[in-house]
Structures are given as C-alpha cells and as structure tokens.
Specification:
Elements: E1 8-12, H1 17-29, E2 34-37, H2 45-50, E3 59-62, E4 65-68, H3 70-80, H4 92-117, H5 121-145, H6 160-169, H7 172-179, H8 190-201, H9 203-206, H10 212-224
Parallel strand pairs: 1-2
Antiparallel strand pairs: 1-3, 3-4
Pfam families: GST_N (PF02798)
Domain GST C-terminal: 91-229
Subcellular location: Cytoplasm, Cytosol
C-alpha cells in the first residue's frame, strides 16, 4: 500500500474502556495510528464534528472519514485490514455466536456495571445483585463456548471477545480498590478470572491498560463527586 493511503487517527480518552477496545484492535492488527487525547469536559471541535450524534469517544478517523461507536469500529477495522489476525472468525455461525456474547458484554453486563458505579444505597445493592447475575450468565456462556478452557492467548489469536474482556475487566484491581467489591471472583468465575490473568500478562495489553494509580485517583474522584462515568 502506498504511503499516505492509510491515515488513521483515534480520538480517545486514556481511561475509557470504549477507547481501549479500539486501541487494542489497532495494535493487534499492527495498524500505525495517531492518538488524540480528548478532554471530555472540553471536547474538541473536531470530536463534535466527527461524532455529532453522541459527541463521545472513541472516534476512528480513517483517511478523513469518521467511524463512531467502539464495537462498530472493531468490525470496521476487521473488514478493512484483512491482513493480520482476524478479530472475528470467518465461519458465519461462529461469528454470530461471538457477536451475541459481544453484545451481551456491552449491553447487559456493562449496563449493570454502570448502574453499580453511579448508584448508592438500596439502588446500589440491587445493582450488585444484577452484576453478579450477569457474571454468572457470562461465565456459563463462556464455558460452553470454550469447552477446553481459555486457549493460550497471544497477539496472533486475539479476538473481539479478548478485546472486550480486556477492556472491561483488565483494570479490575483498580475497581476493587475504589468500590470495595470483588466482581471478578476467582471462586465464582474461575474461567473469566483465569482468562483475565492470561490477557493481563500479554505485552500488547500491558501497553494499553491505564496506569493503576492514575485510574484509582480518577475513579475515586468520580465516586466522591457522584459523577457519571463517561463513555
């Protein structure tokens, strides 16, 4: 491919799980990109122009054309750069299964996490129950999807579910420290727990996860000021 044909920019935010998904995908594929950090309290005119509907990060800009919504960006990356590891399996049935669980993690599980982080008192207790319920469903589903257990993961077989699990659970220690809740319980969720341990050891992942202390400080700030975590 000729120089300048593939100009890739990512508008993101250092602690955003949604941004991290896209960063992981770009790195798995080995796609060079320029990263642009957005201040979500003072969004750049470009971000507002590129994502006029949601005004959120991440936005991938490929040769001047913006693509928004992290999961849609993952599929776009996989379809556009077909060399390098595939993020979704080629087989339509397998791909449908992966998409189903990707959607579950994003909508169901993440929705419950969001409630948990942004609620108090009785509402929070309900949210805790809901999170554990969804975690049970995910653990069971992953045991069925991966009957042999979690495969050895490296940069060459790093798929969409690895990306979502990393972005969602990778920084679990920071969340435990701030919210005092052990969501990724190794007793209850042995498969998910061992999967996250494996993922967190991969150099590619270590290079993307937000620094622990910095994330703890941000989460404490969100908690104390009763702010809604931004996507």
């Amino acid at each position: 491919e000729m120089e300048g044909e593939n100009e890739v920019k990512l508008h993101g935010m250092w602690a955003s799980t949604y941004s991290k998904r896209v960063e992981l995908a770009l790195r798995v594929k080995g796609i060079p990109y320029e990263y642009i950090e957005e201040d979500l309290r003072n969004k750049s005119p470009l971000l507002l122009q590129y994502n006029s509907v949601y005004k959120k990060v991440p936005v991938l800009v490929h040769n001047g054309k913006p693509i928004t919504e992290s999961y849609i960006i993952l599929e776009y990356i996989d379809e556009t750069w077909q060399n390098g590891p595939r993020l979704l399996p080629q087989d339509p049935y397998q791909r449908a299964q992966i998409r189903f669980w990707a959607s579950f993690i994003q909508q169901q599980l993440f929705g419950s996490f969001y409630k948990l982080i942004s609620s108090n008192g009785e509402e929070q207790e309900k949210a805790v129950e809901e999170v554990f319920e969804k975690m049970n469903v995910l653990e069971k589903g992953m045991k069925e999807l991966l009957p042999e257990g979690v495969p050895e993961v490296d940069g060459n077989n790093f798929g969409v579910l690895d990306i979502l699990v990393t972005a969602t659970f990778g920084p679990y220690k920071a969340h435990e420290e701030v919210f005092g809740l052990k969501v990724l319980d190794p007793e209850k969720y042995p498969l998910l727990f061992s999967w996250v341990q494996k993922l967190n050891e991969i150099p590619l992942v270590k290079g993307v996860l937000p620094p622990h202390d910095k994330l703890v400080a941000l989460l404490q700030f969100i908690k104390q000021n009763d702010l809604k975590p931004s996507s």
